[in-house]
Amino acid sequence: MKMQWTGLSMRFVAPLALVLALGAYVVVPLLDNFTLRWFVRDLDIRSKMLATTLEEPLFDYVPQRAKNRVNHLFSKAIEDERLYALAFCDKNDRVLYATSTYPASLGCKEPGAAKERIDKALVRLPQGPVHVAQSVLSRDGESLGKLVLVHDMSFIEHRSADTKKYVIYFFILLGIVISLITVAVAHLSWRGWINGVRGLLRGELLPASHARPSPEVSPLVGDLRALLHEYHLERQGHRDGEQTWTPDRLRELLRGELAGDEVLVVSNREPYIHNETANGIEVSRPASGLVTAVEAVMRACSGTWIAHGSGSADQKVVDKHDRVSVPPEQPEYTLRRVWLSKEEEQGYYYGFANEGLWPLCHIAHVRPVFRSSDWEQYVKVNQRFADAVIAEARTDDPVILVQDYHFALLPKMICKVLPRATIITFWHIPWPNPESFGICPWREEILAGMLGSTILGFHTPFHRKNFLETVDRYLETRIESEASTVSHGGKLTQVENYPISIAWPGAGEVSAENRNECRINIRKSLALSPDHLLGIGVDRLDYTKGIVERFQAVERMLELNPDMVGKFTFVQIAAPTRSSLEEYQNFEARVRALVLRINQRFSQGNYVPILLKAEHHDQYQLNRYYRAADVCMVTSLHDGMNLVAKEFIASRYDELGVLLLSQFTGAARELHEALIVNPYHIEQSAEALYRALTMPEAEQKERMRSMRALVKDFNVYRWAGHMLLDAARLRKRERVMQRIDTHHRPVLRRVV
Hints:
Blueprint lengths: L1 H63 L2 H11 L5 E7 L5 E4 L18 H5 E4 L2 E12 L2 E11 L1 H48 L19 H17 L9 H11 L5 E4 L6 E5 L2 E5 L4 H13 L2 E5 L5 H4 L5 E4 L6 E6 L3 H21 L9 H21 L6 E5 L6 H8 L4 E5 L7 H4 L5 H8 L4 E4 L2 H14 L3 E3 L4 E4 L2 E7 L17 H11 L7 E8 L6 H14 L7 E8 L6 H21 L7 E4 L5 H10 L2 E4 L9 H8 L6 E5 L12 E3 L4 H12 L3 H17 L2 H36 L1
Parallel strand pairs: 6-9, 6-12, 9-11, 12-13, 13-14, 14-17, 18-19, 18-21, 19-20, 21-22, 22-23
Antiparallel strand pairs: 1-2, 1-5, 3-4, 4-5, 7-8, 10-11, 15-16, 16-17
Helix pairs in contact: 1-2, 1-4, 6-7, 6-22, 9-10, 10-11, 15-18, 16-17, 16-20, 18-19
């Protein structure tokens, strides 16, 4: 330990000593030069004073050619130990009179210009440096000659050497003092950090404890806790050397940590939709990041998914309990459908959720609308889903995953009937700052409903922080910032950030085409040449996705790089959404008008720069577009995570392609090798797009390889596993507290 501390001390002292040495190296010459200039100015002033004193006698003696008097005058003057020599020169620069000490090599040379005065005034002689000053003697406009004064400067060299020595001693002393102080403070801080970390490892900083972290360890308590959670998660899930999160590992976690396999998921959007068509009933899977992420968990857990049945044939395929097994080709879990009237759907979904909460949370420059009638339907539908969850639960302690902003009231409603249930709520969209959320008239009810959860998850630390600040602003709660817990109404809720991801695609989920076949076939279907450059965007037709800004960037790129016209096409797959809302109708019209204008501007024959496909595509089709594209643009104006970015990366087995990613997505905090842009800055996005299209393959592979490794390891099973493990830890603590209460209750009765 002593050797480690010595090494740590040297890490503090060595850089400090180096900096001080460099400081001395720079300061000493500057100080030397400053001292020299100071003395030169002093000697200049002294020379002028002496010249003024000698001027009057010389005006008398020189015209009379009184050599003896002049020599006597000069001899008396140089009795001053600093004045080394004197000389008088006539108009023709000849030395008429001089002391015996006057160097013949000086003659009567004229000093330099004012700016060179210091350099020209100094002359180095064999006997040492001297200062030379000349003063012209004139009366009534007539010049008599000039007086040359030579001062000895050896004393200045001595003083300069002493000054250097003192400055060096000062820096050495300063270094010793600062080093001692720094090492002492570092030692005390290190002891505080070690003690704090030891306390954390012993569990002294758990939410149930009254202990508080030391000031030294407070800044990293959150990070240390996250690392400990990660370690615990890896330790609990580690089996047979397995390191990657998989469905099997998730099942083990459910059986081992949560003592059961009953998992219920609640969401508005259903994972499979049955619709009536001319060819009979067809099944489709909606393009949704939520569905993509959560279905992977359901396939692993074989639970029940409760959702709104919105398909035209949904009621025809369910049993008498409104259940149907999915996926149709290989059933792995149960889908329980809840039916809503048109009025309920209009008020709860289109009204309060998507005209109110959606723009409020995204801060996308669209004014949120709140109506009392919509709120009444929102409460009613949340209760409807709560009743469905309670009916589907086979035990009194199921694991319930509540998804998104449609069900903010659901956790509290379920908790009233099933208090032992483990409720994990994940908020898939951003959470705004307290001031913005304060716009909502029913903010307290929404917050209280969400705090019925055991675990409440957000995409990023920033969204989690905003939520905690909002709760602190509007509710009477006890918030443990270090533990990230909120106590409200006798219930403790863990609030964490869990970056969502995707399930790494298996061999059966990827097109059998190789890269070149996929590129050629997709381009052929679009009537493009095999070497045509292709960009891809996949979004719902929503104003938060930055589709307009994306098209403007494409337009600007073609303006700046005319050689790309006819060689590059951008395909935008935009699944229609919420088309009954006026805001979305206006947005779709704006998008189509912009595409038409850009295409008319740059079209050449059959070529158009933007292909808008406003229709649903299944995951297999999207995967083919991802693999065929040269660049994928994700330009959301505000987003929770954005799984399109991760889907694109997962599809690129060739390790080629470039991801252009908005800085306002949660994914931008993870995928640093993407080209990060501000979508509002059109020129920046245009330049990034051109860079992506011209990026060398070696750089593409380096970037893509790094992102693929991250997405593969931090997959959706890891996302779910972290939430489930945190929920298990909280559930175990509650059971311990219940046993403690049960143990002490009889004792208290006897005392009474």
